[in-house]
């Protein structure tokens, strides 16, 4: 799979990592445990089997024009993650600018192989991941540990594409 992701500016990156550490400190499987060298807080805009020829270059040009992009994180979301397990995420407010950027990315990815339906326009729930594969009782503990965070503002300042087959990350847009 190939993704198109937005990465957090330093202050927002630090804030998300602090929540990862809070969850880890409580013994929960937070994303702080991901050891991939390129792993960092991000918002996935698209995921597909393979992008059409030249599409990622075009996405990079689009991101160069659109970033930095202001963002507001608010509330927690929970998604199913195989069997009865859940994933906990921080919700990203879907501003007009963000939703329009998402739509434009998918226009450039038109014809992509095996698009992940969860990331398609009209089905996408923008979020930044906090945990993976929580058991139901761990989800309750995670909510207790994180509590009600106040809304957090920041920005996305760069883009990238991650290839799950090779494990490589390629910058897109501004560096």
Automatic annotation (TrEMBL):
Gene3D superfamilies (alphabetical): Cyclic phosphodiesterase (3.90.1140.10)
A Pfam family of this chain: 2_5_RNA_ligase2
Superkingdom, taxonomy of origin: Bacteria
Protein name as annotated: 2'-5' RNA ligase family protein
Organism this protein belongs to: Kitasatospora arboriphila
Classification lineage: Bacteria, Bacillati, Actinomycetota, Actinomycetes, Kitasatosporales
């Amino acid at each position: 799979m190939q993704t198109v992701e937005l990465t957090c500016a330093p202050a927002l990156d630090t804030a998300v990592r602090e929540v990862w550490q809070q969850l880890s400190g409580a013994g929960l499987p937070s994303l702080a445990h991901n050891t991939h060298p390129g792993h960092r807080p991000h918002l996935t805009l698209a995921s597909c089997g393979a992008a059409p020829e030249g599409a990622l270059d075009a996405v990079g040009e689009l991101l160069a024009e659109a970033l930095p992009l202001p963002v507001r994180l608010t509330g927690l979301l929970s998604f199913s993650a195989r069997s009865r397990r859940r994933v906990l995420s921080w919700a990203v407010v879907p501003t007009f600018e963000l939703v329009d950027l998402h739509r434009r990315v998918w226009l450039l990815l038109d014809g992509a192989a095996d698009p992940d339906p969860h990331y398609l326009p009209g089905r996408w729930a923008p979020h930044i991941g906090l945990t993976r594969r929580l058991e139901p009782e761990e989800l309750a503990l995670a909510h207790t540990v994180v509590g009600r965070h106040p809304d957090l503002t920041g920005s996305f300042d760069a883009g990238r594409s991650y290839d799950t087959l090779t494990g490589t990350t390629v910058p897109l847009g501004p560096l």
